[in-house]
Amino acid sequence: MSIDREVAPEQAGFDKRRLARLDAHFARYVEDGRLAGWQLAIARDGRVVHSSVHGHRDAEAGLPVEPDTLWRLYSMTKPVTSVAAMMLWEEGRFELTDPIAEWLPEFRDMRVYDKGSANAPYTVPAAEPIRVWHLLTHTSGLTYGFLQTSVVDALYRKAGYDLTMKPGADLAEACRDFAALPLLFQPGTAWGYGVSTDVLGRLVEVVAGVPLPEFVRTRILEPLGMRDTSWSVPRDEQRLAALYVPGPGGRRLRYDLLGDNAFEEPKAPAGGGGLISTAADYQRFMTMLLNRGAIDGGERLLAPRTVGFMTRNHLPGGADLDTLQTGGFAETTFEGIGFGLGFAVVRDPVPARVFSSPGTFYWGGAASTAFWVDPVERLTVGFYTQLVPSSTYPIRPQLRQLIYSAMTD
């Protein structure tokens, strides 16, 4: 499937001139040097209404963004791993309430940080075990070293886990390392972004009896026709966009130190952030979710009720992220936003002052990529660029503002 305009905007309830305004707005991000380039795809009922590219996938080499450009998805990998886990759940291989220590015994008898420094942390026993649903909802107490907002984050960095996995560690070793560190909070009592989905990927491996990349490839990517999606690409693959960070004066700087990791097959394939893909491939994944588990009348990955269950708010007490979040994370707004099994879920768009339909589910990646699925409007949106960190500019709220204001029906 290519990202082509498959239906005229007017036939799908869009104003063509307002869509052009959207492109012009984000073109300014390239013209003033903030972004090297980007790609956008908007679809309704699985038919592409608008697709556009702008700028360069590699500014230094003068290579433009093209429809088949490859992008590092980073945390947009998390929904894929979550789908993998729920496919096993549908087979009765585990319950969402099961302690993960039944398959990953290193997570038995966990400790929780209480006070003290990174050199002398004081911990207390976990009041309950980490359960499968805790991993899917980021309520496990696991964290990320790169957040740099807590003593536990510092302990992760001290153990070798910062922006990437510890060099030389496979996924099994990484999980043993995570289990040896204290949790940031008692499981099920708060929301904290972290390595939960990486641990979920390891759970998939153990339960399924095959490596995570093999399970994802054979059970998700191949059935959906996602032929350009993988955990690494050859070094001579020129379709891959370069990675950038903000520089002085708001102009970007190339970041090959991290970006070149895409050329190496990972020893620890990160279920929380490892995939590389194209806009066309991820469109197929979003369309599957919009269609509640199937695409193109072909093989069904999940049952409709499973997708519906995944995209409800699973936070304890029905709370929103603003109530339960632990800070240090800006991938999404917090007010009126819940979290399901692998996705943020809009409960009420009004508190965040950014329009979307209640029930919209979404996520984004560390390099400023973003997607959402709006079941009410039958809308899917994917935006792709390569600037780390994702919170540098208000790209995501501006996307919603401009896209919904281009709808006329």
Automatic annotation (TrEMBL):
Highest taxon of the lineage: Bacteria
GO MF assignments: hydrolase activity
SUPFAM superfamilies in the record: beta-lactamase/transpeptidase-like
Keywords on record: Hydrolase
Alphabetical list of InterPro entries matching this protein: Beta-lactam-related, Beta-lactam/transpept-like, Diverse_Enzym_Activities
Keyword Membrane recorded: no
Every Beta-lactamase-related domain range: 22-397
Pfam families for this protein: Beta-lactamase
Protein name: Serine hydrolase domain-containing protein
Organism per entry: Dactylosporangium darangshiense
